[in-house]
Write a structure and sequence with these properties.
Order of helices and strands: HHHHEHHHEHEEEEE
Helix content: 40-55%
Largest sheet: 7 strands, mixed
Number of helices: 8
Structural class: alpha+beta
Strand content: 15-25%
Strand order of the largest sheet: 2-1-7-6-5-4-3
Mean pLDDT: 87
Length: about 160
């Protein structure tokens, strides 16, 4: 009986500890740990934005996974990652970032959000889904120590 109780207590402690450690990772480390954001991580590195998004924040990132980047026309990502296109890459990536920590329950009340890029995203609701420009939020509220990530199904481009 004591062993069962100790095992249960240990399991509960490990569960709580895992949740605490998950929230201590910054936005970049949280995205990298998820494993579906290799292209985004490479783009942030090429744009020189890694240290910014590892900073104190807080930030809200509408993050396209690797699959979203793969849906861009062939050669687009490779072209954007070239040093001579850094300014354009920065403009695109900062269009995915909103200052402050905006959780999903607040996003759904918004019609737009001003990005770090300086331009505003359009936020709508269609068929029960939240849309950011033309991208659908597919996984909201991934918390990080310096903000929150909302996974979107496509790369959004500033107009």
């Amino acid at each position: 009986m004591k062993i069962t109780f100790l095992l249960m207590a240990f399991t509960m402690l490990m569960s709580v500890t895992a949740n605490v450690f998950a929230a201590t990772k910054d936005i970049v480390d949280t995205a990298v740990a998820a494993g579906d954001f290799k292209t985004l991580a490479a783009a942030l590195q090429a744009a020189g934005l890694v240290e910014t998004l590892k900073g104190p924040g807080s930030f809200t990132v509408f993050a396209p996974p690797d699959e979203a980047f793969a849906n861009l026309p062939p050669g687009t990502v490779e072209e954007l990652l070239k040093p001579e296109n850094k300014e354009k890459l920065v403009a695109i990536l900062t269009y995915h970032v909103v200052p402050g920590k905006v959780m999903a329950n607040d996003v759904v009340k918004m019609t737009s959000a001003k990005t770090v890029n300086g331009k505003s995203l359009t936020i709508t609701r269609q068929n029960g889904a939240v849309m950011v420009d033309n991208a659908k939020v597919i996984h909201p509220d991934i918390e990080a120590s310096n903000g929150v990530i909302h996974v979107i199904d496509s790369v959004i481009l500033p107009q």
